[in-house]
Amino acid sequence: MTAERAAELLRGARHGLALTGAGVSAESGIPTFRGEGGVWTRYDPVKVASIEAFLADPAEYWRVSKERGRVALAARPNPGHLALASLEQGGHLVAVVTQNTDGLHRDAGTRRLIELHGSGRTVECLTCGRTEPRADVQARLDVEMPPRCKHCGGAILKPTVVLFGEQMPAAATREAFELAAKTDVMLVVGTSLVVYPAAEVPLLALRSGARMIVVNAEATPFDALAEVVIHGRSGEVLPEIVRLIDG
Ligand code: APR
Question: S-S: 238 plus which of 83, 92, 132, 147, CB 3.0-4.6 Å?
Fold first, then answer.
């Protein structure tokens, strides 16, 4: 019943919008942050993922980021990413707003992707401002820790991701909030919805009268506000919803 209701809502959506989090990439082998086995159950986010900690000790940041970067660069989209791309191609979603930095939505074919927390696929030099692919930097972490800028030799290379204490990118934030204010169906997938301002997106959508669908492995603080709540794996639930829409 719930997957059918979700399919019905998305089939009729004129301006559907999705918000995703780490859960949509879990089945691609990338650990989530919270919940069972989450990264923040092993590390203190303020110590390893805040801008203050990064600037105080870039080497420590890179030592922790090295493993996560290796896993993310090796990851491939799973059926959940592919289903979201299919919903966009079918006109049921106008965009995917993501908190993820792994790039898997774009690899899966999502065209209009808004990365609220930046991209882990590139690295920028805080000295000269030039960027290079994360894959190139990852390749030299075994011999260069912390990595140095290949353009200017600068000492502080930082992935183009939003760390705790940093602002989200202004253009992406504006676009996400504008879309949320216009959406009629808000599909939330694989996020604990505890980090703001990203979690403002579904709140804005609800305030604009949108109907909300939550697909998550466990309960979220927004479940009571959703018309449809499906507790399950997005890699199984989303393809089922697409099958029901396509009939
Ligand atoms: N399918 C659906 N949901 C899943 C799956 C799955 N296969 N596996 C895990 N989940 C759910 C978990 O139950 C959890 O509620 O995905 C959610 C992931 O929540 P978080 O780990 O908190 O990730 P997210 O909500 O994206 O975190 C937001 O916090 O640390 C910062 O910047 C980081 O972007 C991140 C932000």
Answer: 83
